[in-house]
Amino acid sequence: MNKASTQITSTEMHTGGEPVRIVTSGYPPIPGATILAKRRYARENLDHLRKLLMFEPRGHFDMYGVIPVEPDIPKGNEPRADLAVLFIHNEGYSTMCGHAVIALGRWAVDTGRVKLTAPETIVNIQCPCGLVRARVAIEDGKAGAVAFESVPAFAFALDRAVEVPGHGRVHLDIGYGGAFYGLVPASRFGLDVRRSRTRDLVDAAAAVTEAAKQQIPLEHPDDADLAFLYGTILTDGADEWAETPSANICVFAEREVDRSPTGSGVTARIAVQLAKGLIRLGQTRKFESITGAIFTGKALRAAKAGRFDAVTVEVSGRAHYTGTASFTSETGDEIGQGFLLR
């Protein structure tokens, strides 16, 4: 066997069925004064490693991963992060990922990166969108359910019309929950998020994303690198507060399907529902994914994000381990550098 040119190890987890591949060794140091600078460096110089881990034959079209990096030096009274991370997927590098934060909170406690403190342990995680505070419940002496507090979330646009090829004029909301999402009831396309074929839901959501990217310029008060539409979430239309779960499917990046209810997507939905007066501060809602996984979301307190009225949102869920991995790449293996068949 030829000598391996690359060896990367990982811890494998899932949250609600959505994979979380946490790199534990083998990735080169990623320089940059800020986490967004590190994200740019990785995108411009280390993208072959993203493809190696996310694409076949080691991953798949809907794979998701995490690269730990060095945290920024905190500014002002901001607490120092216990860890900082970049998120990777089939298209590139996202700015926030709630399902991964839930997994990372448990992983940080279980591995001793953050000292376990009962009844809950605080884990400060720096994401490209900002510092996210995770609270890890300690159950029978071990890390259990995780709740995180979002960066300021807000409704960017409400009831905005876009022309979608094949569907005509479609009205959508755009919410920010660490990433921007379009929000549309699936019924607008004659679909049901609980019963329709996933392929049909993906086609509709992707069409909305592409149309909105071309027709609605986005802005974020912190950094222009945050101002892009990450995907579209098709919902069951149940936006008013109720005790029963509201179902949704998130299609993000390059037609990637989130198996979880989507932590940053739940954050965006809560921000939009609050802006519309459909929920109140302190009300807990449940959100269901296509796997039947449940996240809870709650608007905690008012906030500001530049000119936007914002809200801090709490999202909670559970992550589970699926294994560990050691990946190698042999010299001369061009196909093994990563490919996708869809």
Protein architecture, described:
The chain has 2 domains: 146 residues, Diaminopimelate Epimerase, Chain A, domain 1; 164 residues, Diaminopimelate Epimerase, Chain A, domain 1 (Roll), CATH 3.10.310.10. 18% of the residues lie in helices and 41% in strands. It is built from 5 helices and 18 strands. The chain has an 18-stranded mixed sheet that branches. The two termini are 30 Å apart.
Give a short account of the largest sheet: 18 strands, mixed
Which secondary-structure class do the elements indicate? Answer: alpha+beta
Uncertain spans = none
Gyration radius (Cα, Å) is 19 Å
CATH superfamily of the largest domain: Diaminopimelate Epimerase, Chain A, domain 1
The portion of residues assigned to helices is: 10-25%
Spell the H/E element sequence.
EEHHEEEHEEEEEEHEEEHEEEE
Could you tell me the number of beta strands?
Answer: 18
Question: Any guess at the CATH architecture of the largest domain?
Answer: Roll
**CATH classification, class level of the largest domain:** Alpha Beta
What is the end-to-end distance? 30 Å
Helix segment tally: 5
Count of folded domains: 2
Q: Averaging pLDDT over every residue, what do you get? A: 97
Layout: helices, strands, pairs:
Layout (H helix, E strand, L loop, with lengths): L3 E12 L2 E8 L9 H11 L1 H8 L10 E5 L13 E6 L4 E2 L3 H13 L9 E8 L2 E10 L2 E8 L4 E11 L3 E9 L3 E6 L12 H18 L13 E7 L10 E7 L3 E2 L5 H13 L8 E5 L5 E12 L2 E10 L1 E12 L12
Parallel strand pairs: 2-3, 4-6, 11-12, 13-15
Antiparallel strand pairs: 1-2, 1-18, 3-4, 4-5, 6-7, 7-8, 8-17, 9-10, 10-11, 12-13, 13-14, 15-16, 16-17
